[in-house]
Fold these 2 entries.
Entry 1:
Amino acid sequence: AGAHICLMIGPPGVGKSMLAKRLPSILPDMSLDEALELTKIYSIAGNNSQKGLMKNRPFRSPHHTSSAAAIVGGGTYPKPGEVTLSHNGVLFMDEFPEFNRGVLESLRQPLEDHCVTISRANRTLQFPCRFMLVAAMNPSPSGRWDDPDISTFTMQKYLAKLSRPLMDRIDLHLDVADLKAHELLHAEAGESSLTIKERTTQARKIQRHRLNDGSMSCNAYMNHKQIKQFCSATQEGRSLLNQAIQELNLSARAYDKILKISRTIADLAKEDRIQEEHIAEAVQYRSLDRKW
């Protein structure tokens, strides 16, 4: 609903990849401007097999052995990378800690600036890359948090593959739990993608109207000035946020992330002002901050 960056943490086989692949089905339809922009990118990259206007949001899922040039773009004759090919869509990075450390760190600037600048001796090119990063990882090298054979040192080494500056740029840390046997055997029918899509579309309309800028239509893309203007919380909400910052030792960037997420939660609830419960839910999505 707010185009926030997300990291799913859970044991193998719980459905992290399945959830990520379903994400485009609940995203709002692209506007004509977004479709034209995406079509230009794929035409430049030589990937437009449709031979016409691209109407569906892209979903890219590169392998964890991909190089930095493949992810962010580059080469002797620079071409767009996966972050640009995911523009206005979803970039899914499975087995997130298994990517090369340099590749992961190269994501920091695109996630912050929503563009990639590639310089060569004879030219400098800039590619847009406003995308939703969705990553997935196991909670430990063995796949479980509670493995008695995994030492604290091993766990710290595993988590250290993801630097704090990179994790600061990820909005949502989602713990994906195992389903119990009776939940698998007697699963109730959930909401359809179309029903969820209606909610996300409505939330995006609220954000576009508030921000009054077609290119800045999502809460995730708000700058600090817009956060101060549009993310006002109640006194109880501000008190809870202050407590969370002190206990979790959050950075200024994480503080902004929590306010953006709270704004999206409030939009889904059709609330004009951020309430205490919206802040409380947003703080729960910073689980890895507690593990550092």
Note: The longest strand covers residues 132-137.
Entry 2:
Amino acid sequence: MTIWIVTAGNSDVILKEDYSWSRLYEQAQEADKLDCWHFGSLNRIDPRNQDAGYSTAARVLGIVYEDQLDDNFEDLSFPLLDNFTEHLKSQNNHKNLGVERIIMILTNQKNVFTSEEIQDPKCPYWQDTCKLKPIFKKYFQEKFSQFKGEIEYLEIEPSSPSEGIVS
């Protein structure tokens, strides 16, 4: 059995452009979905390249887009995942991925940090990828509509700071 283990980091889902961001971010704030209201700005990936896109904290991106995917999925880009997908397809004559199972590893450190710590935009809590799960589900549905194998989402969730992902 061939298994593809996929990990995601904070910059593995980016925004192609910033047209919808302010509106969607405000909607998430109004719905009281964000733990922190004083940050969530986009960062241009390359100031010299207008087409490079924007990044923001993975948790914020996932929260903002989780209920907006049907209308706004095209805002998102998956540079590394797309490259790996194309490589796997090219190795298998573009018919399929050549894998029977995909395991997507996501992180969630909600039990590691205090509410005071998560008020800091640099807290690793904001880099967690667990809130990107709906985005990745949609990605796999669209990119692998013919995939007959199993896609499993494995969430790593330490229960205390001593078990945390960061030290």
Note: Helices lie at 21-30, 58-65, 69-72, 79-91, 133-143.
